[in-house]
């Protein structure tokens, strides 16, 4: 009977010894709380690997949250820039429409005078071909080039208006 009484103690000692050995052999990366391996989980708990794993995962989470906040900041700045650019585009399109309308009005008002004055007719024709060329080129050029072309046309139309007001073509 003495051999029987020692068997439960021997079994408990064997389990404890196996748990201690498993604890020494585990690293935080190997410890998974969802694992069903009793000895491995006991070893992870005894060695502090679960705590280390938790600290590592919390540090990773904090880093990812900082990175996410940084990305959100950049996204916010990009959205603000996009809104600003859309506003500028609308403003430039309105300027373009006003310039186009002003040129059409000026051209119609000068229709009778251009028949009598060849120099004025040539000037109006040159500006009109510049306007038409700009419209055709607008499809393939960038915003800066379009703005430069529009500014040049504005200057030409303004100079023509001033010349007409001064009586150059009379």
Question: Count of DSSP helices?
Answer: 6
* Helix/strand/pairing category: mainly alpha
Rounded to the nearest angstrom, the distance between the terminal CA atoms is 137 Å
Low-confidence runs (pLDDT<50, min 5 residues)?
Answer: none
Task: Summarize the structure in words.
By secondary structure, the chain is mostly helical. The protein has helices at 2-25, 38-47, 49-109, 111-116, 118-137, 143-166. The chain is built from six helices and no strands. Helix 3 (49-109) packs parallel to helix 6 (143-166). The mean pLDDT is 77.
List the helices and strands and how they pair.
Elements: H1 2-25, H2 38-47, H3 49-109, H4 111-116, H5 118-137, H6 143-166
Helix pairs in contact: 1-2, 3-6, 5-6
What is the gist of this entry?
Helices cover 85% and strands 0% of the residues. The chain has 170 residues and is mainly alpha-helical. The mean pLDDT is 77.
Keywords:
85% helix, 170 residues, mainly alpha
């Amino acid at each position: 009977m003495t051999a029987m009484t020692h068997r439960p103690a021997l079994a408990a000692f064997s389990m404890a010894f196996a748990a201690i050995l498993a604890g020494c052999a585990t690293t935080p990366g190997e410890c998974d709380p969802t694992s069903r391996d009793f000895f491995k989980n006991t070893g992870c708990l005894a060695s502090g690997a679960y705590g280390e794993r938790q600290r590592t995962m919390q540090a990773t989470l904090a880093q990812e949250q900082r990175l996410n906040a940084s990305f959100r900041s950049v996204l916010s700045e990009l959205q603000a820039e996009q809104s600003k650019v859309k506003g500028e585009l609308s403003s430039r399109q309105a300027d373009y429409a006003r310039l186009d309308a002003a040129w059409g009005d000026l051209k119609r008002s000068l229709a009778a005078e251009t028949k009598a004055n060849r120099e004025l007719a040539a000037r109006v024709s040159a500006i009109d071909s510049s306007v038409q060329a700009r419209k055709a080129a607008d499809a393939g050029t960038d915003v800066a080039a379009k703005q430069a072309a529009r500014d040049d046309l504005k200057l030409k139309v303004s100079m023509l208006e001033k010349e007409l007001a001064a009586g150059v073509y009379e």
